[in-house]
Write a structure and sequence with these properties.
By secondary structure, the protein is of the alpha+beta class. The chain has helices at 15-28, 40-54, 92-104, 117-125, 152-158; strands at residues 5-9, 56-62, 65-73, 77-83, 108-113, 129-134, 144-149. Strands 1-2-3-4 form a four-stranded antiparallel β-sheet, with helices on both faces. It has a three-stranded antiparallel β-sheet with strand order 5-7-6. Helix 1 (15-28) crosses helix 2 (40-54). The protein is globular, with a radius of gyration of 15 Å.
Length: 159
Amino acid sequence: MPDGLGIRRAREDEGAVLADLYLRVRRENAGAIPAVAHADDSVRAWWSDVLVVRDEVWVAELDGETVGVLALRRPDWVDQLYVVGSAAGRGVGSALLDVARRELGGRRQLWTFQSNTGARRFYERHGFVDVERTSGDNQEGAPDVRYLSVAEEESRESS
């Protein structure tokens, strides 16, 4: 874990702040990630009223600044993982995936957009395998890909 990085559970009152981080990262990656399908206020309400209440949400802070967010949905979903551009390449995303591995254990799965080649390379470097693709069965109507990762022990047993 990089120096100055802390990861903690989100508080329920942080939904709007985390939604703003999500919106910022989506905008920073326009082109690789399709535009958000909902108005900003709707996104903030969803993060505040649903995501931080329903899921396990984790916050990454680098030198006191909130730079990443991870939402886990049991039993095995990495539902959201976003890191601001200024913290990219500094181990924040890897540290958040370590939390997912620790909290979810064995099998972990997630969706990402097919066009988000940077995220896809990142997940593949971390042992995720492309197991399913759609032509856009999501709110954005954009082609996506489901990735699956299994615990190291399970991988060795199936070899």
